[in-house]
Amino acid sequence: MFARIRDRFDRFKRSEDGAVAVEFALLAPLLFAMLFGIVCLGYFMALSHSIQGLATSTARASLAGITTEERQAFAESHLAQASARYPLLDTSAIISTIAVSEGAASSITVTVNYALAGSMLDLATGFLNLDLTSLETGAYLAY
């Protein structure tokens, strides 16, 4: 009787059934956290690039205007079409400022502020206790 119990125990000790499942259960949270971090970092970089591209392309779009009012109108029209040109951006989250100056040094300054509320980055900053509520960038172009 003890020999049978000992044989079963030895067979159980040598068996590796379920070892992979246990290893996966131990490593899965770490792997999924790393995957979430990689996706969030990529999303952050894509948003930053899109916002910078929007600011610079808005400044360049104003070159077509001759007067200050035309330049302002071209820039505002370009910003209104932001979601068509940059599909990652939500136009309701964009707050922009356009300052056109005339004179000896004519120029345009475009500032774009993108609110992160409700985005994937907002969720990530909640997990990581980051103080990241918006992304802001600008572009300056002298005529």
Report on the structure:
The protein has 143 residues and is an alpha+beta fold. Helix content is 57%, strand content 18%. It is built from 5 helices and 3 strands. The model has no long low-confidence stretch (mean pLDDT 87).
Q: Into which percent range does the helicity of residues fall?
A: 55-70%
Briefly note the structural class of the backbone.
alpha+beta
**Major sheet:** 3 strands, antiparallel
- Output the strand order for the largest sheet: 1-2-3
Could you spell the SSE succession in H and E letters?
A: HHHHEEHE
Distance between the termini: 97 Å
Number of separate structural domains: 1
- The backbone outline, from C-alpha atoms, is rod-shaped
Oligomer: single chain
Mean pLDDT: 87
Low-confidence stretches: none
The gyration radius over C-alpha positions equals 28 Å
Measured by DSSP, the beta-strand proportion falls in 15-25%
Helices, by number, come to 5
Report the count of strand segments. Answer: 3
Question: What are the salient characteristics of this protein?
Answer:
single chain; 143 residues; 3 strands
Strand and helix layout:
Blueprint: H1 2-14, H2 19-61, H3 68-80, H4 82-85, E1 94-101, E2 107-115, H5 120-128, E3 134-142
Antiparallel strand pairs: 1-2, 2-3
Helix pairs in contact: 2-3
